[in-house]
Amino acid sequence: MWICPVCAMPLHATGRQLVCERGHSFDRAKQGYVNLLPAHRKHSASPGDDKFMIASRRDFLERGYYRPLVERLRTLCVDAMNTVCGGFALLDSGCGEGWYTCAIADALQESAPDRSLWIGGIDIARDAVAMAARRCGGVDFAVASNASIPLADTSLDCMLRIFAPGYDDETLRVLKPGGLAMVVTPGPRHLFALRELVYDEAREHEITINQLPGLCHQDRITLAFGMRVQQGDIEKLLRMTPYFWKASAQRQQQIAAMHSLDTEASFLIDIYRRAVRP
After folding, report:
1. How much is the pLDDT for 268?
2. Does residue 54 carry a pLDDT above 80?
3. Three-state SS at 212
4. What domains can be seen in the chain, in order of their start residue?
């Protein structure tokens, strides 16, 4: 499925390398992923989330606090697969450490064990992709940017984007006619109790529906639930969000010392479909 990030020719596996017809080659790391982010497209030496944020998010998610969200996404992705004849290709664009990717891959593989599936994940943070590749077999992971996805035109049946930046032209380019984009963003009161500890005046997230050129907005699913975050996990929750950088050192310490935190998790799942005909 991958194409060369230099010349856009298809990549073919040769041993532990992916090679295009023009001779550009990319080694597979020992964890199984491939780095398809050219140096000239990096904005720093280590772009994306840092190791502390990645590890904190992994530990927090593995505790199951966001289980209702991943279960809903599993159902939506299986439903999307069941509307398509033949093979099914899905990309988690901005996959991070792969917690959602792996859970969704398991659901698709369990639902259709004899079906031709391609499941991939990309992220700009190499440490996150390495972690994802270690934890999840059967998924193709690559270090790559959402701004330049190393996949051919009209190659995907479904794209996921969970709390990750997106680029409308790339989303439209890689989706097949009739393909779906599922975009997860924070709901209005997502982690509001945590935000009240960080900011002097916390505000609800604004609610808008982005109109993506060439894509029709089909549905918005609102998912909200309460959760009690235990001591130790509160600091991980803070570290995995942008609020960590907004909190003073004193507030970071106070939040980390809390015995528990009752807050709301609130998510919006927007579903877009690419037109079958232009």
Report:
1. 97
2. yes
3. coil
4. 33-274 (3.40.50.150)
